Each structure stands twice: as structure tokens, then as C-alpha cells.
Queue: 2 jobs
Job 1
Amino acid sequence: MPKLSHRSRAVAAVTAAVVLGAAGCDVLGGGGPGESDARERPKPSASPVPVWDSSPASLAAVGDSITRGFDACSVLSDCPEVSWATGDSGEVKSLAVRLLGAAKAATHSWNYAASGARMADLPAQMAQAAARKPALVTVMAGANDACRASAEAMTPVSDFRSEFEESLRTLRRTAPAAQVYVASVPNLKRLWSQGRTNVLGKQVWKLGICPSMLGDADALDAAANLRRETVQQRVEDYNTVLKEVCAKDPRCRFDGGAVYEFRFGTDQLSHWDWFHPSKDGQARLAEIAYREVTARRA
């Protein structure tokens, strides 16, 4: 073999270093162009479990007299069998019946609402509901916070917020996976405008039904109008609270104001007091709830 010159030996050494360097990268896993990118690219993950299940297996209800079916069947009495949330009446087809079927609804739905309840009563009701470990909890509360002896006696918005937040915390401590459907507070001013056309209804209102809104039903002076507008604004503020607090919980769904915006008429009002929902009104609430609970949302 001929003897290499000094220059040739230098070139050979450089060439060997490059070759060995390239080989070393392959050993360490370098590979060709694009291979590193492919290795660093994350693998497709399995489909995430949806946060909202539109077909829950059990249901608990909390709230006030509306959820108890008050005055829907007879005067001054609860009628939970026609409750929009958990009733078993074929006339209403409650949310529980629509979601679970009549047979399962009888054993897998519970009603902890109470007539006269305000938001301050909701944490205790939620504790009862949570003990059942329900898949879904329905909430309809707030009307009694606005329906006070006077507009000045209404629940402050800040208290309403803190009480609702405490209710959700109470639920989460025992039933962290439970879903929550929150119905908006009904439009009390529309209720006044509908019911005041009935002479009997106005007489019943004088017994003390929602005085802040329904008192002096025929009065249209500035003071009466201001009182009603104040109550109506408070209802809207309550609905804003329900929306905002619910939005912070990934397993909570607000109805978007569907109950508040529903244009109910006298057929949807109890003919005992022209304030609470009739059986037909309860059925409309059940329809709204079912639509909202089963809706596909991003």
C-alpha cells in the first residue's frame, strides 16, 4: 500500500470522524430527516369521557314549592306526583320519567324541595340529595327570595350568590361526579300581567302571595311600577348569579334563561292561586328541562 502524504492523512482523519459521527447519531437514535419529529409528535389519545351525560341513571330534586307541585292538585297543599322534576303523573311526564322511564323513576328519583324554601335553605337540601349519590340534581330556587313582604326584604344578591356557591360545595363534598341542572327563576312580572286579568286570582293574591310583586295588583302609579321593576331586576340579577356560578362547575348546566323567557299563560297557572304552575305548567317545565338536559353542547 502506498504511503500517504501528510495532507492525505489529514483528509482521511476528517472523513473518518464525519462517518463515525454520523454512525454515532444513528446509534443514539438520531435517524434520518423527519424521524426525530415523528418521535416527538404526541400519540393520539383515547376519546375523553364526556363531562355531561345526557342520559343520567338517577335524579334528585331540590328547590321550592314549584318543584313540590304546590297548588297544582288542590288548594294550599303540595302535590309532588305532578312535580316537573320527579313526579309520576302521566299528565306531566316529569323529567325523571322522560329520562329514566316510569318504573325506574319510581326507585331512582328523590324530591327534597320544600314549599317556601329560599336559597338559604338549599345547602341543607343539597346535603340530603348528595347522600343519594344521584347522577343528576335539579335546582329550581330563587322565586321566594324575590317574593317577600316588600321589595326591601328581598334576599341581597351577594347573599344569594354565596348561598348558591355553598350549595354546590356541599354537593361536591359527597357527590363530586353528580351533574347539576339549574333552572332560571321565572318571570314574576309576566306572572303579574297574566294573573291580574282574573278577578278571583287578584283576590287570592291579597292573602299574601308574593306581595313584593303581586300586592296592589291594579295599582299603576309610579311607586307601584317602581316596586315591580325593582323586583323584576332582582330576579334578573339572581339569574345572572345562577349562570355565573354554574359556569364555574364543569358538571353544572344552566338553562340559559329558558324558564324565565317561557311565555306562560293562564292555562299554565294554578287556578287555586294564579301563581304556582298548574299541571299544564308543570308539564311545560318538564319539557324545558328535558330539552336542556339532553341538548348537545360544546
Job 2
Amino acid sequence: MAFRSVKSFLVATFSFFSITFSNQLLAQENLPKEENKTAQSATEKKEGFDTQEVIFGHILDNHEYHFTSYKDVEGKEHHVSIPLPIIIYSPQKGFSCFSSSHFENGEVIYNGYKLTEGKIEAVKEDGTLDESIKVYDFSLTRNVVQMILALTLLTWLMLSIAKSYKSGQGVKTAPKGKQSLLEPVITFVRDEVAKPNLGHKYEKYLPYLLTVFFFILINNIFGLIPGTANVTGNIAFTCVLGVISFVVIMFSSNKHYWGHIFNPPGVPFLIKFILVPIEFTSVFIKPFALIIRLFANMVAGHIIIISLISVIFIIGQTSVVGGWSTAPFSIAFTVFIYFIEILVAFLQAFIFTMLTAVFIGQAFEGEHHEEAAHH
């Protein structure tokens, strides 16, 4: 109930600001041309914080890890970031490999290429787009780099724990260190997710379920570190996971599964014309639900956190006192949502794994009924 009240308050707050700023924009459209130009120039001078740019800059993929920006005494803007390697291929120009720092945050053209809104394009000498040159981008973006780091960490954890078990630690003696941290989690996934949904076949699917759970969890936690990428908030990432789960589900299906879809037992003949298309559509809706659920939940939390911080700067542009007065409340709500996001990081990994196990179990559900009838 308290969380719903907080969400209602946040919605009301953001709605107020949206209505206020939209009214100002509509009012400018009704001004005479000269006055409208004056208002626009004044707005451009006051403009110093772009909420949309900050939000989408964090959510979308990028060719560098950007942390902050500052201006020196001369007013020149500098960016604090970690550049990533650019690897592009063009049939006309061949392969090109260089650091993303050469683009200087998209302000500079380098080697005939320009970075525009996260996309590398071939340009002419005057800076206009050169449509005659095709560009294939194979760069290591921050999402890719972070996935590699997450995979490396996952592999190292599991191999080191397996090595400890082989040496007898955790078998003849009590588990220590990483073992004591991860063993309860592995046992939980086995006893509460795999066994209830997969029955006697749980050992066959347990490695996949554990891999999915820990891979999503590690990426969720990495995404909560300031300056990092929100990998699980990328639809391409969740789409690949959903497709892999879909393939596993399809290979686990049997004749009973498809028989219940195309010829539901105990259903009147005319009703089957309605029920069969719905059942067949549900085959594709299941992985789609996995994709959207993880993507939407991880994106929503990050947007709320960034929006709460942005309120300070939005109000601060109109009134310094208002900005400082808003800061304690915004920071308090941000910390509150941040701790909820830590819970969501574990919860979404669990839900994705649980639903995958449920869908796999449904794929060979008919075997359980056949075994029961046999006994």
C-alpha cells in the first residue's frame, strides 16, 4: 500500500511538471514571430539540462562509458568517460579500428566517419551524410563489454566453486567463502524452481536454469552501478534470452503438448475453431512475455531513478532556492527506489527462471499423465 502511494505521488509530480512545461511551449506558438524568436533564444540561453538526453543516454547503448561532463575556465566542455574500441567495415573503405575518443562525444569527424546519436555514419568532407558508403558496425559497445565482463565473472565464480568441491571443501567440511554465498541460491533454484516444475527431468535442465538466473542477476546488479550500462534494459538482450528459452521449450515438447494445442480434449468441435488459434498463439506469447517483462521492469526502475534526480536540476534552472529545497526529497526518494531496484534485480532473475521452468514443464506435461495412468 505504501509503495502504491509513492508511485501515485511520483505520477502526480511528473504529470504536474509535464503539464506546466507543455503549456509554456503551447503559449510560445501563439506569440507573434518576433516575440516567439525572442522567447526561443531566451530558452536556448537558459537551457542547461536536458532530461531526455540524460535518460536515453543511460538506457541506450553507447560507444563509451560516460560518467560526467564539466566546463573549464574558458567555457569549453570536457567529458569524463572511458572510450571503447570502434571496429567498422565498409565495402568501399575496408576495415577501420580506432578508439571512440577520436569522435570527442560526436563533435568531431574522424577518418571519414561521424558518431551521430550513437550511430556511426560515413560523411563527406563538408560533414553531410555520404549515402554511397555502406557502414557495418562491429564495435564493442558498452552493452557488449559489460556482457563479456558478466560472463567472465560468472565463469570464474562457477569454476572456482567447482574446483573447491573437487578438493573436498564443502563436501567433507563446511562450505567457505564463495561456496557459502552461492550454495543456498543454487539449492533454492533447484528445490523451488526446477524440481516442482520439471519433476524427474530437473537435472537435465538445471544447468540452463542456473546459467540464466545468474547471468541475468549479475547484469542486473552491474546496471545499478553509476556510470555502467543497463544491459537487461536493452530489448535486444532480453530478446535473445527469450528466443533461447523458446528453442529449449520447443525441443522439450512432445506429441501430447501439440495434441492439446491442435486438438484440445473434451472441447466441443465448434469451440475448437476459436480455441486452437488462441492456444497456438500462446506458444509465441510465452517467450514474448519473458522478453517484455524483464525489459520493461529494468527500464522502468532506471527511468524513475534518473527522473527523480533530474527534478532537482529542472527546478534549479528556474529557481536556485527551489532546486536546493527539492534536493533532500528527491535524494530520499532516489535512495528508496534504489533499494527497491536491488530487490527487483533478484526478483526479475527469479521470475524469468521460474517462468522458463514452468513453460518447459508444460511442454512435456503429457508424460506425467501417461506415467500416472500406467501406474
